[in-house]
Amino acid sequence: MTLDHLLADIAQDHAELTAIRQDIHAHPEMGLEEVRTAGIVAAKLREWGIEVTEGVGVTGVVGVIRGTRPVGASNRHTAIGLRADMDALAIPEQTGVDYASKNPGVMHACGHDGHTAMLLGAAKYLSRNRDFAGTVNLIFQPAEEGRGGANAMLKDGLFERFPCDAIYGLHNMPGYAAGKFGIRKGAFMAGTGAWKVVFHGTGGHGGAYPHKSTDVSIALAQYVMAIQTVVSRNVSPLDTAVISVGSIHGGSNQSPNVMPSEMEITGTMRAFDKEVMATIDRRLTDLAHAMAGANGCSAEVTLRWGTTPLINASEQTDVALAAARALVGDGAVHPNTPATTGGEDFAFMMEQRPGAFIFLGNGVNEDGSTHQVHTPHYNFNDAVIPYGVAYWAQIVQQELGA
Fold first, then answer.
1. CATH: 3.10.450.50, 3.40.50.2000, 3.30.70.890, 3.30.70.360. Which one for 191-305?
2. Distance CA 94, CA 364 (A)
3. Which residues contact 23 (CB under 8 A, 6 or more apart)?
4. What is the pLDDT of residues 349-359, one digit of tens each?
5. In the CATH scheme, what is the homologous superfamily, with its name and number, of domain 3-188+309-400?
6. Phi and psi at residue 213, in whole multiples of 5°?
7. What is the CB neighbour count within 10 angstroms for residue 401?
8. Could you give the residue range(s) of every CATH 3.40.630.10 domain in the chain?
9. At what angle do helices 385-400 and 14-26 cross, to 10 degrees?
10. Where do the DSSP E strands lie in 117-157?
11. b/e 254-293 (16+ beta carbons within 10 angstroms → b)
12. Cys staple from 122: which of 47, 71, 118, 392, with CB 3.0 to 4.6 Å?
């Protein structure tokens, strides 16, 4: 099928896919709670004659489309996976659109409603255009936003039940012109984690008897300064790492003369390399105990990496680049897009199968402004749905069409 015919074929579904996207947007669900969304996905796949398995990793859905052509010696792969995420975020929506969230305090602030709609569009297109050799597994993943959806599907035997030689993911990117693509080989997105330290002391009367108390506030203050040395002195200048403080809690503003017996500090950590991640873990822990010990206190440290670094495989990145270029031309495809310290738990799937993850431009407002993801004014741009559908179709053509 020529590119013009491909785009014309996809265009006929645009209105339906927009309606699905906006319906999902109006009924957002948090990770591992996507019962309604998963139901819509499964129903649509069945409507289009696609084999469906529900409940993969709690609320995940997998659709399987088999090509009509025999697999030959020229085929590099016999099965691939295309993945979209389905979950929303705990953010009150402020977009003002008439299909805004009907679930108070929850909204699709990252565009997963659009990702789901685009993969559904690819499913519908491929269901009526099966002239390829091999199998396409359509992976609708729950709980990308920190609730472990990728690992839930993997533990449920995702790749044993639905074998994939290569996997591909896509995410919209506000600020990129609609229809532009960005990707890079190697480390593309960071491993992301959260840390918490609780300092324990005796507490005491801050005015009358401070000398008879152990002061957790000093331990915490010294810790805030000490962890600034981790990136500058424990991580190579050639590597990237981030450690930031997110919250500090302790004592009561109603009792300013009371030295607290406990103070808590939390933060985030980011890195692109497993060894750097291990260094961060070790130093955050060692410094907490050192600062506590120096002040007669104790420290309780909790560390959790929510995602692993996302590494784009060379071969699959080339496939992604070829698919995007075939669709929009060289000028609208950026092969060396800067890496981001944002995280993506599709990376866990990519640790088990080689893959590539690409950004698709979500457009820019008329005044040049952009509402970033994870903000209450963000909204997925329905105009880019055909680009995402066509990209998925091109990936299938690149991998299974020969």
1. 3.30.70.360
2. 18
3. 40, 99
4. 999 999 999 99
5. Zn peptidases (3.40.630.10)
6. -120, 160
7. 17
8. 3-188+309-400
9. 110
10. 135-141
11. eeeeebbbebbbebbbbbbbeebbebbbebbbebbbebbe
12. 392
Q: Which structure tokens are listed for 224?
A: 């805030």
Rounded mean pLDDT, 308-327? 98
Q: 9 is written with which tokens?
A: 């074929």
The per-residue pLDDT for range 366-397, each reduced to its tens digit, is 888 899 999 999 999 999 999 999 999 999 99
Q: How is residue 293 written in tokens?
A: 């010990």
20-37 confidence digits (pLDDT tens): 999 999 999 999 999 999
Instruction: Report the chain's mean pLDDT, rounded to a whole number.
Output: 96
Runs of H (alpha helix) within 48-133: 112-128
Closest CA to 251 of 270, 234, 264: 264
> Residue 323 corresponds to which tokens in the numbers above?
């698919």
Whether this model's pTM surpasses 0.85: yes
Q: What confidence tens digit (pLDDT) does each residue in 45-102 have?
A: 999 999 999 999 999 999 999 999 998 777 788 999 999 999 999 999 999 999 999 9
**How many CB atoms lie under 10 A from the CB of residue 94?**
14
* CA-to-CA dists, residue 153 to 51, 192, 259, 309, 388, angstroms: 18, 20, 47, 18, 23
